[in-house]
């Protein structure tokens, strides 16, 4: 089974965006050629008389030279320069319309896109083996069919136009220059219009084919979609490693806050919660570190090493652990219980400072029922 047989899924937004960056959008050269030819034929039919009269006026001005101007090199240069300027100004509207049509037509089908990758040198495009493979691919066969169809259509219409207008073309020599130029431009415009109209059949084949071919090339396999999602979101291994690194960083930062805490409320062995209270602010005490089992032991060891008091209160330790996130103030329902702990800590510090008798730890600390954890 080929790779294309596996590509059954619609393209993702990222796939389409990447394709546009590379210039891979649906384009129809036949549509561009058809519209440009039709526009040029329409301009010749509608503006042919104006263009013919303008050209005749330029020729009259340029070729009617006095004897003095003919023998003056500077005058010849000025006449030629003026003739070129007049010709450019006369044909400028026609050329402007052609430029606009040449730009708007491709945009109408695939939108505007400019990609350096599309015009960059690609050695693989010069590979003769790959070129032969492209010739015998479906696209190559379609291009061959379109070329043969264009030749047949243009040849048939050209023969019909030749038989229809040969008499008028031969009679142009008997007309005055004023009438012959305008008449010739009308014939040319009509012939281009009819020849261009014959290509509409090729356009009707090419545009749907280009849209279908682009859609087919953009198809993705289920594995490609999975790989794209994995690249966008990251592989599970990378995400797991990132989570571990984030947890380690958060834990390290948390342990750095333990020496700054005012008290460590313990279980006393399974839970440990570090609290910090700023008496100069109006905020409630804040939980700066918490942990269970191994992390709780690390918190206790860091507190002992830094001289932070440890107070055993199993119900309060569990309540604080489950109800308060890191760097958050304790809930209002635990204000009274924490206040008892902080009051004991302040009394203990005062006793140590003044060599007083150490106070007894608080007993029967009341924890509201909604905060109790079994």
From TrEMBL:
The keyword Thylakoid does not apply. The chain crosses the membrane at residues 34-56, 88-114, 149-167, 187-212. GO terms for cellular component: plasma membrane. Keywords: Bacterial flagellum biogenesis, Bacterial flagellum protein export, Cell membrane, Cell projection, Cilium, Flagellum, Membrane, Protein transport, Transmembrane, Transmembrane helix, Transport. It holds the Pfam family Bac_export_2. GO terms for biological process: bacterial-type flagellum assembly; protein secretion. The keyword Transmembrane applies. Residues 9-21, 222-240 have a biased composition (Basic and acidic residues). Residues 1-24, 222-244 are annotated as: Disordered. Its main location: membrane. It is a multi-pass membrane protein. It comes from the Bacteria. It is found in: Cell membrane. Belongs to the type III secretion exporter family. Required for formation of the rod structure in the basal body of the flagellar apparatus. Together with FliI and FliH, may constitute the export apparatus of flagellin. This is Flagellar biosynthetic protein FlhB. It comes from Methylobacter tundripaludum (strain ATCC BAA-1195 / DSM 17260 / SV96).
């Amino acid at each position: 089974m080929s790779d294309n047989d596996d590509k059954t899924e619609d393209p993702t937004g990222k796939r389409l965006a990447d394709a546009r960056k590379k210039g891979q959008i649906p384009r129809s050269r036949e549509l561009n050629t058809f519209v440009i030819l039709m526009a040029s034929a329409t301009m010749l039919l509608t503006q042919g008389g104006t263009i013919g009269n303008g050209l005749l006026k330029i020729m009259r001005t340029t070729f009617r030279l006095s004897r003095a101007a003919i023998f003056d090199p500077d005058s010849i240069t000025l006449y030629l320069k003026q003739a070129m300027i007049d010709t450019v100004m006369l044909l400028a509207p026609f050329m402007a319309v052609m430029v606009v049509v040449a730009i708007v037509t491709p945009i109408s089908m695939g939108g505007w896109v400019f990609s350096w990758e599309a015009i960059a040198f690609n050695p693989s495009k010069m590979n003769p083996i790959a070129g032969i493979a492209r010739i015998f691919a479906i696209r190559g066969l379609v291009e061959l069919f379109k070329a043969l169809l264009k030749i047949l259509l243009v040849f048939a219409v050209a023969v019909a136009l030749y038989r229809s207008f040969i008499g008028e073309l031969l009679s142009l020599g008997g007309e005055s220059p004023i009438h012959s130029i305008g008449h010739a431009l009308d014939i040319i415009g009509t012939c281009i219009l009819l020849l261009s109209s014959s290509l509409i059949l090729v356009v009707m084949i090419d545009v749907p084919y280009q849209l279908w071919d682009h859609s087919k090339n953009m198809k993705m396999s289920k594995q490609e979609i999975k790989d794209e999602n994995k690249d966008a979101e990251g592989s599970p291994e990378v995400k797991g490693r990132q989570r571990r690194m984030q947890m380690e960083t958060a834990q390290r930062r948390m342990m750095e806050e333990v020496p700054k805490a005012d008290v460590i409320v313990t279980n006393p062995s399974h839970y440990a919660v570090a609290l910090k209270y700023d008496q100069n602010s109006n905020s409630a005490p804040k939980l700066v570190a918490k942990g269970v089992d191994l992390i709780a032991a690390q918190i206790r060891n860091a507190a002992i090493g830094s001289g932070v008091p440890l107070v055993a209160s199993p119900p309060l330790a569990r309540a604080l652990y489950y109800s308060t996130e890191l760097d958050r103030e304790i809930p209002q329902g635990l204000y009274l219980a924490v206040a008892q702990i902080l009051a004991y800590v302040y009394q203990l510090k005062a006793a140590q400072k003044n060599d007083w008798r150490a106070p007894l730890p608080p007993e029967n600390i009341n924890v509201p029922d909604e905060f109790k954890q079994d």
